[in-house]
């Protein structure tokens, strides 16, 4: 299987705003016109379309057993952190939190936890140039609640109910607790 991690210059990624600033900016699809004016994006522009998509993703109702937020500041992401009661080699997802970067003018992450069975792995990978890197892989063992139109099913040619595994890109991450002594 060929695994592709796009080159991502994290220094050019949008930065988190302090909570005070982020909380002063509307974050709702109902406020899209005001948000676009604030960032000087015209309606229908590529930036406006990805922002609208990000807002909609944040407003989707969680699936059964899932708790989620879209973190607009580092402080709000840390507020969403849960304690995981498992060793970090392979972790039951009962209490872990996954965060995925969304396309937005400043750093916004879609963070969620779920009660469904998820397994997380630390995987050592080697690139074509011989470089080695550890990556995080996540396996969703229960996808029965997922939409039939989920991109994973389209890519894999499968349907809800079958497991789905994927790697996390450099700007996506999983919060886990430190192992207890």
UniProtKB/TrEMBL annotation:
Highest taxon of the lineage: Eukaryota
Alphabetized PANTHER family for the sequence: BURP DOMAIN PROTEIN USPL1-LIKE
Residue stretches making up the BURP domain: 1-178
Protein source organism: Ilex paraguariensis (yerba mate)
Classification via InterPro entries: BURP, BURP_dom
PROSITE patterns: BURP (PS51277)
Designated name of the protein: BURP domain-containing protein
């Amino acid at each position: 299987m060929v695994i592709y991690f796009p080159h991502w210059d994290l220094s050019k990624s949008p930065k988190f705003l302090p909570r005070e600033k982020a909380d002063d900016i509307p974050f709702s699809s109902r406020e899209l016109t005001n948000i676009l004016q604030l960032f000087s994006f015209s309606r229908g522009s590529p930036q406006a379309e990805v922002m609208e998509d990000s807002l909609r993703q944040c407003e989707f109702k969680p699936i059964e057993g899932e708790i989620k937020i879209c973190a607009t500041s580092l402080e709000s992401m840390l507020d969403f952190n849960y304690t995981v009661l498992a060793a970090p080699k392979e972790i039951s997802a009962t209490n872990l939190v996954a965060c995925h970067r969304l396309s937005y003018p400043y750093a916004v992450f879609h963070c969620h936890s779920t009660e469904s069975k998820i397994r997380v792995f630390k995987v050592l990978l080697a690139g074509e140039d011989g470089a080695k890197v550890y990556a995080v892989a996540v396996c969703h063992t229960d996808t029965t609640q997922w939409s039939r139109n989920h991109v994973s099913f389209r890519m894999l040619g499968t349907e809800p109910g079958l497991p789905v595994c994927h790697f996390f890109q450099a700007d996506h991450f999983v919060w886990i607790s430190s192992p207890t002594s």
